[in-house]
């Protein structure tokens, strides 16, 4: 089977890292006999917006909705377009309209990457954050009353549906069950957020009954963030609402020093729509155009994409190539203390693919 | 003037650490000619609840509402009383009914305290988290519909009022202005939480205009938690909503290794009602009754209370006594790797007060 991949570099360093991601994907595909076909799109970018006054063409769904996956660079350039136009006009639109209800990110201490935590070594920290990606705190329900008076107030609803909560928990429990430790941690705040969070807890308890082989616990989000720093070795699969998952999936990579190289998947598990794979870093206007961006976030996202497509061996070969490149400490980019440019780093990883 | 302090030990280790807090307060008061009068109350505890079926007497406001401050131990014992009874029946009631709209916590790397972060030394990290303490995400507005069907959903509103947001921002900007660095960081998430958080940003911008001497910036909460780990030296005063402040004021102390010894103030700045000072740690059922709890959180909270009452010199003398005790590394409790019991540690700090 040939996989059709929609490639959207987007903005800023997105355009610089994607060629390296493609280089490594091609190397792995060749080595492992996987057939990939790439279609390139220029929308979801400031350039496109400048020309067309919108982030995407009206028929964007027809253009990319039938692909097997979407390989994405970065979007957003706050100085040029407000976030609610750029992000809500592309990334968040994909999540909602392609029902990518899982946001998945690894938290892994990699060899050779300087971690801000003291006394941790590769292998100590290795877990997944599973984030609900379509509802929760990112609702659009709410408004403002009595504007510009002392009575002014705004309100915004957090919305959790049975369907929305149960399906993300199911995904998280399945993932936990498939891993050696079989452990799940739920992020809550039911002692303070007194309606939605107790409901989340209730659904976790109900779902846990269906997975008797999975040990689970829950922490309030305040102490959970503390435990990411103090006891990152406690975790295996961590599941949270849209907001809590967002926080934990930045904090986790930060604790392992990998925030600049972390990958993510916005996944529609049923495969009714394509999933989006993108590096966690954004478009980084401050370093864009210099060719110094670290391509590993994009490359690692490509590996996640292959694994999602079922090409586990090819995907794993990329992750291992990344680990070897990082461990050798030679061809690293500036953010990791090296001198290599984006292309040199990408080539190094491609050469390592085995 | 004599200060009248309401003392409420509450539950678990709250009862064990409070005598040490009082010991140190008395030592500092004696040294610095401050007159403190303590009234002791047994409510806000499981014992009281067991006897009376409620957390506090009906006339709790008359009993403690006229005191100059409330010195609090810990509340909550989830195995015996659900949080929504114990916490919402005491701590959160105080915050709301005594209009303690500021929750204030220091984040400071102390000498002699093992920090989970690599390569940081005392003096590197020294900032305050200012948390809105009465509204925001902890509203009680919302509900459930279509229970036990596939259409089931719950919703809960985040509520931000002009009055509520402006007054916490004012407090935070004033605090920033009083400090040498004069820097303020606002926690937001306006790229995802599209109604309340842009409002928060808008009010921050408006308030900043009134404090031209204060430099300020803002970060989305996801990357802000990452920056607490990666760049804790960037911060001076950090202000956030009820939820964001809650998260940051656990994560901050965790980064400095002080979560077990951190203090907090629930403050009504106008002094219309008493403020509550309490250690950040809870009742800790797992170690309660053994006499091994670290009393420094309670002692440090006592120092914050003195400072709030205007007794800066006496307050400072306690903080310095804590620092010296920690630096000497002799009389420390088990959680910090020592052998001292709660009383021995409390006596050591009291002896150090100068
Ligand atoms: C106990 C809980 C309701 C409380 C809160 O979230 O406000 C606690 O975490 C705190 O920070 O004081
Ligand atoms: C850009 C922003 C809206 C987004 C989010 O909060 O979902 C980002 O932080 C992410 O994690 O993908």
UniProtKB/TrEMBL annotation, chains A, B:
Keywords: Manganese, Metal-binding, NAD, Oxidoreductase
Domain Isopropylmalate dehydrogenase-like: 4-349
Gene3D superfamilies tied to this protein: Isopropylmalate Dehydrogenase
Cofactor: Mg(2+); K(+); Mn(2+)
Metabolic or biological pathway: Carbohydrate acid metabolism; tartrate degradation; 2-hydroxy-3-oxosuccinate from meso-tartrate: step 1/1; Carbohydrate acid metabolism; tartrate degradation; 2-hydroxy-3-oxosuccinate from L-tartrate: step 1/1; Carbohydrate acid metabolism; tartrate degradation; D-glycerate from L-tartrate: step 1/1
Gene Ontology MF annotations: tartrate dehydrogenase activity
Cross-referenced Pfam families: Iso_dh (PF00180)
Catalysed reaction equations from the record: tartrate + NAD(+) = 2-hydroxy-3-oxosuccinate + NADH + H(+); (2R,3S)-tartrate + NAD(+) = 2-hydroxy-3-oxosuccinate + NADH + H(+); (2R,3R)-tartrate + NAD(+) = 2-hydroxy-3-oxosuccinate + NADH + H(+); (R)-malate + NAD(+) = pyruvate + CO2 + NADH
E.C. designation(s): 1.1.1.83, 1.1.1.93, 4.1.1.73
UniProt-listed NCBIfam families: TTC
Stored PANTHER family: D-MALATE DEHYDROGENASE [DECARBOXYLATING]
Described function: Has multiple catalytic activities. Apart from catalyzing the oxidation of (+)-tartrate to oxaloglycolate, also converts meso-tartrate to D-glycerate and catalyzes the oxidative decarboxylation of D-malate to pyruvate.
Family: Belongs to the isocitrate and isopropylmalate dehydrogenases family.
Name the UniProt record assigns to this protein: D-malate dehydrogenase [decarboxylating]
